[in-house]
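Justification of computing resources. Each target in the renewal requires a structure prediction run like the one illustrated here; the chain below, 469 residues long, is used simply to show the kind of job we budget for.
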Amino acid sequence: MEIQSFDVIVIGSGPAGYVASIKAAQLGMKVACIDKQADPGGTCLNVGCIPSKVLLNSSQKFHEAKTGFNTHGIYCDGLRFDLLQMMSRKDKIVSNLTQGIQYLFRKNNVIFIQGTATFLSPTSVAITKETGDSQTLTASKIVIATGSAPVVLPNVNIDEKVIVTSTGALSLERVPERMVIIGGGYIGLEIGSVWRRLGAQVTVVEYMDTIVPQMDREISAAFLRSLKALGIEFQLGTRVLGIHRQDEGATVIVQPALGGAEEKLVAGVVMLSMGRHPFSEGLGLDRVGIQVDERGVIQINQNFQTNISSIYAIGDVVRGPMLAHKGEEEGVAVAEILAGQKPHINYDAIPAIVYTHPEVATVGKTEEQLKATGVPYRVGKFPFTANSRARVNEETEGFVKILSHQQTDEVLGIHIIHADAGNMIAEAVIAMEYRASSEDIARICHAHPTVSEAMKEAAMATYSKAIHI
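Resulting structure tokens:
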């Protein structure tokens, strides 16, 4: 059996894995990156973050042309869309980006190997190829970055045609007449928005009494109103009892979470979007004694090191939010640690974004979290209806909400709902990383006219008074 030696082996080529591989190589290490898939990028690039954003972009352009262009004096008579072309564009963008990662691997001398990795020892893994051939790799340090997989219901056969995960929902061959989405989190709401804009009747079934339960409740309520205005229907506080496949679709049996009469929801497509779980099975972790919890989360210390000193873990497979950018930060950090450096990640300053329209972006504590922990705080808000650029763009839905400490004025959390929230949140992250006060934000000159002025005004409202309301 062929044996190759490296300084670092990275298992997984998603955002955490490929970034860790490139950074480690840049720091002078000999690196191999292993993935089961032929194309690097993991779930995020191949069947998650990127393809969903492509379809969100395409469907939003169609929706705007259909519902909003006439106010600008632009009329689109005979407007139509070509789903095949939309999917082709999505696939082309994904292909170009995966090729980009392959280029970066070559540029940085990272050896990419397609195959399934299994631990043989704390410093060696066996790689099994699709052909059945195998080889052994050894390294003084091994990084696990295998990502996550969708949570599924027991006894439900996912065919990715009628009963689908996000993977199938991003590759449908036609717009379903009716779509039921089980789960009111980020992924389901984004994909539900795509198909609603293109004409599907979409119903979201969520066990909790609110969508995106971890979100600030005031923001969540505004977000829910926005999605309802788009035409998405919601059954909150509802449990799923079963899904039954038929020839032309499926029936979802639901019931109020607190008990009551059962109801049947018939749909052409049913999407399971109940979150994700760490993908840590099949690696042979028990063979080397790596500790995992009951959910399969690999246990690590503050340096991403498992209980086996030569093995590290990052990304969705460890604690913390399952976000691509969180994995990327950990990828850089673990490589720097392996090089003897001392990086730092502030997990309180990691943003989260829902890429619907309007977008929702948040960083730091919610008002509910501050109340629960007894932290004294102040609230400042500013609506985009009072922002001149938002009015020019006819993107006035939403507001900025800033939470700061009542005594010190240090910013504790910032929450935004707006068409450009995903870009605006960067300023909030910088403010929190450098422990700015709301007055610090308010006294920074923001260009006029820009939607970023809403951040300044919300900050003014937090420590004093806003000007334009």
